Amino acid sequence: MKTDLTDTTSSKINKALVLGRRAIGTPAVGMVLTLVIVTDEENAYDALKAANDASREHPSRTLVVIKRASRSPRDRAKARLDAEVRLGADASTGETVVLRLYGEVADHAQSVVLPLLLPDAPVVVWWPVNSPADPANDPLGALAQRRVTDTYAAEQPIHELTGRADTYTPGDTDLAWTRITPWRSMLAAALDQVVCEVTSAEVEGEEFNPSVELLAMWLADRLKVPVRRSTSQGPGLTSVRMESDNGPIVLDRPDGSLATLSIEGQPNRAVALKRRDTAELIAEELRRLDPDDTYASALRFGLARLDEEAKVTAPKEPAPAAAETEAAPAPAPKKAPAKKAAAK
Q1: Confidence of residue 205 (pLDDT cuts 50, 70, 90)
Q2: How many CB atoms lie under 10 A from the CB of residue 135?
Q3: pTM of the full structure
Q4: What is the pLDDT of residues 78-135, one digit of tens each?
Q5: What is the mean pLDDT of residues 291-296?
Q6: CA distances (Å), 94 to each of 63, 255, 287, in order?
Q7: CB-based burial of residue 311 (10 Å sphere; 0-12 exposed, 13-18 middle, 19+ buried)?
Q8: 168: left (phi over 0), alpha (psi -120 to 50) or beta
Q9: Are the C-beta atoms of 127 and 135 separated by less than 8 Å?
Q10: Which of 109, 213, 227, 322 has the fewest Cβ atoms within 10 angstroms?
Q11: How far is Cα 222 from Cα 178, in angstroms, rounded to an integer?
Q12: How does pLDDT run across 21-75, given as a tens digit for each residue?
């Protein structure tokens, strides 16, 4: 069931939600949280599809906030709110409200969203793209217990990752971190199988991938060992190698789907380690709404410290052979043979 509202208000949207639930025969509110998606028109469809898929596990009221740019100064001065209310089969197992903000109202999105939040329910704000520099101090982020960003979608992912460390507030998280959950689980399980001391590690993945940096920082933070990063063609993370006093431990995934776990003295094992879609990532984040202390610790370890330790422990290139400073003495010229005395 869809209801379109043009030039509307938050109270009219709430009324449309109540009437819609009665029309489909479910007057009670069975949602467990409110998910606020802040995006643009280009990425709204994919973000909403992922949220609808995740709502099968976490029934929620999804509010999609789209700030529309006005073309003329006259349009920018006029504030307007359009809404699309979706219930029933059009909203999977939850409720969906697509909000399009025009003019000055776009600068006050929190005033539109606040009356639509479910009472006494957690609030999660997700920025699929164009996340603010400080999510916790963003007007919409301040309404939430959990704030989800994605540094992989940024124009400069590594620079964005550094900014996340500078502005981290409990409740912040990153889908680049969520993507490495299976890697962290598999590596931790591998270390539980052997008694050894890890001395160094290497993480390999595609260039400018923040998940590579986060996994390297996590290993360095938890194992207290130097971690190097190397570049591959991807997709995503491709390999992790840990050197230990009991031999190397390698988790290699060249194709983005099936990985091979190699432990010294044990047969190689194939493990499923496929790349997950956005719906699975969001569903995982909605399972836990408390601060992620492990993410905070890895993020605060810092890229600068990771680079510094990698430089100190990097194998040094052999020095070029020293050039001879003195020229070798020229060989003495051979004496010409003495002429034989002429026969008398």
Answers
A1: very high
A2: 25
A3: 0.84
A4: 788 999 999 877 667 778 999 999 988 888 999 999 999 998 899 999 999 999 999 9
A5: 93
A6: 11, 35, 16
A7: exposed
A8: beta
A9: yes
A10: 322
A11: 17
A12: 888 776 556 778 999 999 999 999 999 999 999 988 888 899 999 998 766 666 6
Query: What is the residue whose two structure tokens read 């949602």?
Result: 31
**Do the beta carbons of residue 235 and residue 206 sit within 8 Å?**
yes
The type of residue at 88 is G
Asked if 3 and 16 touch (Cβ cutoff 8 Å), the reply is yes
Residue type, 259: A
